[in-house]
Amino acid sequence: MDWIEDVKKKVKRKNKILFSKDSEYLQDLVWLINQQNRQILVLWALDFAEEIVKKLEIKYPNENRPRNALEATKLWASGKIKIPIAKREILSCHAFAKEISNQEDIALCHAVGQACSVVHTSGHAIGLPIYELTSIVYKLGVENCADSVEKRKQEYIERLIYWKDNYQNYTGEWASFLIK
Fold it and tell me: Is 3 helix (H, G, I), strand (E, B) or coil?
């Protein structure tokens, strides 16, 4: 079954999340993610989270929770703050998603939260595309999303390869738990 048919079935069942880590469509990305160390995944995830936060800031200029989650996560990844502070900000970003009704934006908030959580564990990395691709479907509709979803998936792969090849050139600081 192609991924569009799978997504159509999920929409028909009124699923909120339209992709999963088990989606056949995402298995090449899942495999690639699983081959990376956490530093690579953090750089990759926060790169995309920055883009998503900027989109949310345009739509919600008075809402700071996604930006706060991202900035706290950067501090956490650099060892400047501890997990409880970053976790509170990440959970606050997820809470914002519960306060809005636009399905596209709800998925984007969760994508930011998942991206930020990669600092805690690599298992959250696939959450970023799961939620962001879901947001694309909500934005464009199932009938009009194929090109955009496929383009974004390719961007995930290309940027992951970029960070794999360039993470050692990163000049920022790393928390000790990310250096192991």
Answer: helix
CA angle 126, 131, 136 (to 5 degrees): 125
**C-alpha R_g of the chain:** 16
* Residue 81 token pair: 């703050």
Q: Is 82 helix (H, G, I), strand (E, B) or coil?
A: coil
Q: Are 56 and 132 in contact (CB under 8 A)?
A: no
Report d(CA 120, CA 2) in Å as an integer: 33
Question: Looking at this protein, which amino acid is placed at residue 23?
Answer: S
Give the position of tokens 């962001």: 132
Q: Cα–Cα distance between 153 and 156 in angstroms, integer?
A: 5
Instruction: Output the pLDDT for position 148.
Output: 98
How far is it, in rounded angstroms, from Cα 158 to Cα 164? 10
Tens digits of per-residue pLDDT, 159-169?
A: 999 999 999 99
The per-residue pLDDT for 16 is 95
Q: What is the pTM of this model?
A: 0.96
